Here is the input.
Amino acid sequence: MKKIFGILGLLIAVCLVTASLSDSFLSAYNVENVLRRSALFGILSIGVAFVIITGGIDLSLGSVVCLVGCALPWLLTVQHWPVPLALLAVVALSLGIGLFHGLLITKLRIQPFIVTLCGLLLYRGIARGFTADQTVGFGNEFKSLRLLATGKVPFFPGFDLPAPLLFLAVVAILAAVFLNRTIYGRYLLALGRNPQAATYSGISTQRMTILAYVVSSGLAGLGGVLFVLDVNSAQPVDFGSFYELYAIAAAVLGGCSLRGGEGSIVGVLVGAALMQVLRNMITLVTTRNNVEFAIIGAVILLGVVADELTRRIAAKRRAAQVLQGATAA
Amino acid sequence: MSSPILEARAICKSFAGVRALKGVSLAVHPGEVLAVIGENGAGKSTLMKILAGVQAPDTGDLLVDGVGRSIRSVQEALSLGIALIHQELNLAETLDVGANIFLGREPHRWGWIDAGRVSREARAVLGQVGLLVDPGTLVSTLTIGQQQLVEIAKALSVKARVLIMDEPTSSLSDHETQVLLRLIRELRAKGVAIIYISHRLGEVHGIADRVEVLRDGENAGHLSRSEISHAAMVKLMVGRELSQFYPHQTHPSGEVALEVRGLRTAAYPAHAVSFEIRAGEVVGMAGLVGAGRSELLQALFGVVPALAGTVRVAGVPVIAASPRDAMAAGLALVPEDRKHDGLFLEMGVRENLSIATLHRDQRVGFLNRTKERDLCAEMIPAMRIKTPNTEQPVQFLSGGNQQKVVIGKWLATRPRVFLLDEPTRGVDIGAKQEIYRLMEELAAKGVAVLFVSSDLEEILGMSDRVLVLHEGRLNGELSRSELSEEAVMRLATGGNHSTAVAAS
Here is the structure.
C-alpha cells in the first residue's frame, strides 16, 4: 500500500511540474489524449502484471498488439470478413497465443523469457509476412466500429471521457476482484511467492500459470484492437513496438516484483499513467522527442532504487525492533 | 604406533544456540582407517567440516603432526594435506572432469590454463581411482557413483595425507563400492590417514582399523580392530535413557485407514513397499538418511509420481497424481523442508493457514472471508501459534511457530491420514512438545498418523508401531513391545528382524 502512495506521489509531482512548464498540459484536448493513451497502455499493463505476479515475464505482447492490430483491418478490408467474425478471430488468436505460451512454459518447462522472446520475433514476423510490410488500415470505413476506441462519453460540459477508459475500468475492476476476492487470485499470488509450496498445498500451479499467460495475451489482443481502431491504420514494421517494455515498466513501477507474488491493480494503473504523463511531458516541454527513452529509463530506475532503499530501511528498523524485543525479554 | 598426523582436542561448536559438538576429541595416524559412526545428528559431519576448515570450532584445538594449528579455510586445510570429500557432491556439473579436479588451482602459465598438464595429471589420478573416463568428459554426463569417484580423484590430486570421506558410498553401486574400498586399502598402504564416515556398518567392519563413536555431540566410545562388531557399534551408537518427554498413550486402533500395496518410488524402483495404518494409530517411520522415507511420503501425497502400487484410504483406491488428488482422498503432508515446500514466507499467518482450505470453503470461486477469519480464530489459539496478529508474515515467526502454521493448515483440511516428514526438525523444545501433543490428539480423534523421523528418541517415544526402511526396502516392523533403539538401528542398518529384537 505504501508503495502505491510513493508512485502516486511521483505521478502527481510529474503532473505538477509539467503543468507549470506547459500551458497546454491541462487543456481538455491534451488531458483526453493522455487519458486515452494511459487507458490503452493500462490494459496491456494489467495483462502483463498477471504474468509478473506468477514470477514470469511476457515479452511478446508488443508483437501480439502488432499481429492483432494488423490482422483486424486486414481481415475486414482485404478479406472482407464480417465484423463479428473478424473480432472473434482476433480474440481467439490472442487467447490461443497465451495458451500456447502457457503450455510451453508449464508442460515443457521452457523459461518464460525464452518462450515470449521467440513470440516477440514470431508474431511480428507473421504480421509483416501476411501484410507484405504494407500498412493496413480502415480508410474511411468502419467508423462506427472505430468509435470503440475514438468515441467519447460526455463527462461534464467541455470535457469528455475517452471510450478506452471505460474498457480499462471494466478490465481493472474485473482484474482487481479476481486477484483480491477469488480463491484463484490468492492461488496466483501464492504461486508467485513459492511455486513449490503452492504445489504441496494442492494448487494446480500449471493451470494457474497458463491462465496468467492467457490473460496477458488476451489483454494484449484487446489492446491491439483498440490501438488500431484508435489510430486507424497499422504499420507492421513498428506497430506496438516496445509496448511490452512500457507495460512491464508500468507494472514494476506499480509495485509488481519481478520475483513474483506481489502486485496490485491500482498500482499498475498508476504506473501506466505515469509512463504516459512522462511521454507527454517530453513532447510538450522539450522540443526533442529523441530523449524520450533516456528520461523514461532514468525515472524508472530512480523509482526502483528509491523503493529498494526504503525497503532496506524498513527491514533494518524491523530487525532493530526484534533485537530490542529479544534483549528486553 | 606412530604419533597422530591429525588430532582434534575438545572441539565445541554451536549453531544458533544448539550445541552440535560438546568437546569431542579424535586422532588419526598415518596408514590408518578410522571409522567415525553415530546416529543422524550425532555431530559427525560438523566435526569433519571443522577438520577440513569448512567451519571454525568455537573452542578446542587442532594439531597437525603434533603442532597446534588453526585451520580457518579449506585452502589452509589443503595446504596441510587435509582433504574432505563431502557427503553432498560439490562438483561443477557443467565443467568437464579435468576442470573439476583442478578447480581453483589450475596449473597455469602467463594466466593461461595449461591444458596439457590438466589432462595428463587428471588422467593419472583418474587411473588411481579406477575411473576410466576422458578428462574432457562433462561431469553432468557421469553417474552419481562416477561423480563420487571424481571427487575422490580431486582429493588425491592434492596429495592429501589425511583424506576425510563423509559417507562416500551412500550413492555408489556395489561394484563402485568395491572399487572404492580397494582404493582405500591402497592409500592406507601408502601411509595416507583416512577418516571414514559411514552408516553402513558392514563396510565399517570390513575396512576400519579403529572405530570412534559419536553420540549427541560427544565421544560415546571407541573400538579397536579386534573389538569391532555390529552389535558393539550399535550399542555405543544408542544406549541412553528415554525421557518422560513424550505424551504417548496406547491407542485403540480402528479400521485400516491407509493401505499401501507394492508402492515403488523413483528413488528405489527395485523395492516395493507395502504396509497399512489403522485409524487412531501413530506409526513412526525410521531409517537412515537416504533410505527413501521422504520419497515414500511424497509419492503417497502425489508430489512425485509413484512408479507402481496401489494406495487405499479407508478402503477407497486413491490415484494421487497431484497433491490435490491426495487431499481430496483425505491425506495431508507436513513436508520436511517447511521453508521450501510448506510456507509462503512473505505472506501472513492467515493466508498461510487458509491456503489448503480455500477451495473447500469457496463461494463459487470467491474467497470466503468469514471462514478464513474463523479458521484463524480457531487455529492460532488451538496451536498456540505465537504471532502479534493474523497478518504477520510467517518469515518473522520462530521455526516452531512456523511449523505450527504448516500443521494448522493441514489440520484445517480435516484429513483421515496425516503424514509428517521430520515434524520437529529445527524446532525448539517447547514447540516440539506441542507438536507431540497435537499428534496424540489427532490419533485420539481417529486420524491415522504416519511420521518420518531421524530422531530415534522421537520414534521410540511417539510410535505405536515403527516401520524401518533400509535402502528403499521395508526392512522390518517393530511393535511397541519390541521397540528399542538397538532394534531400530539394527533394522535401519540392514540387520534382520529376529536378531534385531533378540539383541535388545
